[in-house]
Design a protein that fits this description.
Layout: H1 10-27, H2 43-67, H3 71-90, H4 105-135
Length: about 140
Amino acid sequence: MENKKINIGASDIILLVLSAVFLIGIRTFFAPCGPKDDGSWMTCHWAGQAITGIAAVLLVISVIHMFVKDAKVKQGLAIAMIPTALFSVILPGNMIGLCMMNTMRCHSVMHPATIVMSVLMIAAAVLDLIMQRKKG
């Protein structure tokens, strides 16, 4: 029986770092608008919560991707990241509304940051997919 050691590559690190920055960012520096004065939340809060869930899924997939040995399984995980990241682009402002004023934090910070992080995740996943196809 062949003993394959785990080989963590640059794409593993890139995917992990991007997904971690996405998750930490959406909870901190790209967070949507805060609560209203009465303590209730605007609709963009729920978009931020949903994006947090998506970023957490991307982080879990990235961790699994890092420790999987088989190139075909890594390809499948990279493929799974693409629609997951794409979903985070579609969600805010389309499926879950954002604030009415375009000057609000959800429009000026959260939504653009979500698009950038999602595009970076998709690009990294596509590059990883190409690299894994060469290996497998």
